[in-house]
Every structure is written in C-alpha cells, then in structure tokens.
C-alpha cells in the first residue's frame, strides 16, 4: 500500500472552510473546494480524521479521477486502478453513484460498470476465475461524475460522521450534530465562558459544546467501516484512540445551560446527555426564552429557534423573536448567535446583526445571525 493517500472530508454546503480549519488543526495541509476538503496523508490520518472531525460528513479515500464520456472509458480506467491494494479477497464492495452535467447520465449503468471493472481487476490480482463471496469487511465504492470527470472513492466512515453514537431519542426536527458543532465553532466560544442554548430540543448544540469544551473527539464512542480494513490495522486505530484519551480535558470545568419550552424535550435531552457521559456538564431547565435572565458576563448564546415555516406558526414565532430581543437587550457583554430561515428575523428581534452567514440546515436555507458584544472581557492577570 502506497504510504501517501488522497483523502476527502466531505462537507455540507457552507461549512467547507470550517472543515478545512479542522483538517489543518490535525496537522494536514488541505485544499478547500465546494462540498469537500482534500488532503494528502497516511493511513493513520484515516483513523484520526474519522475520530476528530466535528463538522465533516464523511471521510473518503480517492482511488482515482479521470475523464469518462463513454462506458468503455469508464470501465477501462476503473479497471486500471490498483484495487488489490485496498480490497481483500473477501471484501464486500457495493457501488453507489451520482452524475451531474455528464454524458454518462444513467447512474445505475455507471454503478454496474464500475462494479464489473473492480471484479475483473480483483480476479487478475487474486488469480481467480470464480465469484467473490463478499462476506468480509465493507468497502463502499462511489463513482461520482461531474462534467464528465469521474471520481472514484471508498468510504472510510461507514455511518455518516454526524452519528456520534449516543442519541437515544430526537423529538421533532433535530439539527445535525455536524452543523451544531459548526455553530459552536463559529462563535469562537472558549470553555472559560458561560454557554447558553435557549432552544435546546434534544440537546444537540449543548452536547457539541461540551465535547468541544473538554476537547473530547466526537467519534470517541462509535465504530467506523475502516476499523476492519487489514491494511490500516488495529495498531493504528489503537494509537489514534489513545491520542483521543490523552488529549481529552475531562477536568475542564464548564458552565453550559440548556433550556427548552417543552418539558418532554428536556427529558429527552437529559437522557441523550446521560448516554454520552455529558450529563454532569450541562444544566438543563424548562423555560421560555422571554424569561431568560443572568447576572453572568461575557457569555455566548447559541440557538436554533423555531423558524415559523409551518402554516399558523409564523405569528407566534415572530412574537417570540420580539420577546427574545427584549430579554437579551440588557446582555451587553454577551455575544448572541441565532440560526433561522425567517428573513425578517432582525426586524422582530429589534436589531441588525453584526454579521450574517448563509448555512443550510438540512435542505432549508438559513442565516446564522451573529450579534457580537463590543465589550471586551478583562485580561487574565496570569
């Protein structure tokens, strides 16, 4: 196996720069493009990036990239790749695909041809003429065509990285963990400051804040498809998981408060936090946002409030935005961040945002409204 691999961390639209910063923080130079961050690294990086990247969707290995306008071309160029370096003789290798603005528009045909090409190459590599049983570790192959360029990858994550492995229940429409982590990272919150989520729902945002605050890797509690790959090996995974343990700051005190109007959601959020081992770090409370008061200073409020997208909800949501603006008005040392698709948010909140950032919550186009405090915290004497 070649020591240098090309890895791709896929990203939701609008989060690419944050994923890129995370990859750099792991020590890898990278290239940020639409929907993905590409970097050259070794096999250990597969373990580390799966465990540590909070805002990426998946980690993929790029096996090859080439022009393909005909099925013949797709077959031959796929077959020319070194599949024997990656796939053992018993590999399970389903093929998925997508095609955008390409001559080869039929995705099922492209998938079938790539599968056939891989089979032919493996037959030569393993000197066999029979069928492959495919009863071993999973190597999910993807053929992605964009403007007649085919990119062939293997998925090293398995289940998407937003699945942290400890959500018991989620209630209504939960925010994805990857987006929640991005919202927290965008605030530049530090663990020595108070953190509040007044619309916590099933607890996703405060739980991501707790993981960030104690530098706990988001993948610490789950398994990945590539853990069973022979050419990475148990040793590298053990090494990466050991690093996760060593870097965690379990004794870092945190002041995280999570509230919701619905007592059932508070119960669900508490159960989820308990399952993740974060229950002691978060103070949950049933409360309406208009009742929020605090004597603390220099905190950060992050919320994903109702958007009022459903018929009949809009008026109530606008009233709530108004009350929120009034409740938060005295907090001149606090910075406030709200994600919503409601385009009139600033009018109802009663104040224009310092900055807005376009983000997608699932398929909903939203803005992240940022209200920065202009009062600087006192310098630490030490």
UniProtKB/TrEMBL annotation:
UniProt keyword list: Methyltransferase, RNA-binding, Transferase
Domain THUMP: 45-156
Coiled-coil zones: none
GO molecular function: methyltransferase activity
InterPro entries per record: DNA_methylase_N6_adenine_CS (IPR002052), RlmKL-like_Mtase (IPR000241), RlmL_1st (IPR054170), SAM-dependent_MTases_sf (IPR029063), THUMP_dom (IPR004114)
A GO BP entry: methylation
SUPFAM superfamilies attached to this UniProt entry: S-adenosyl-L-methionine-dependent methyltransferases
Pfam family, one: UPF0020
Cited PROSITE patterns: N6_MTASE, THUMP
Designated name of the protein: Class I SAM-dependent RNA methyltransferase
Organism expressing this protein natively: Metabacillus bambusae
Highest classification ranks of the organism: Bacteria, Bacillati, Bacillota, Bacilli, Bacillales
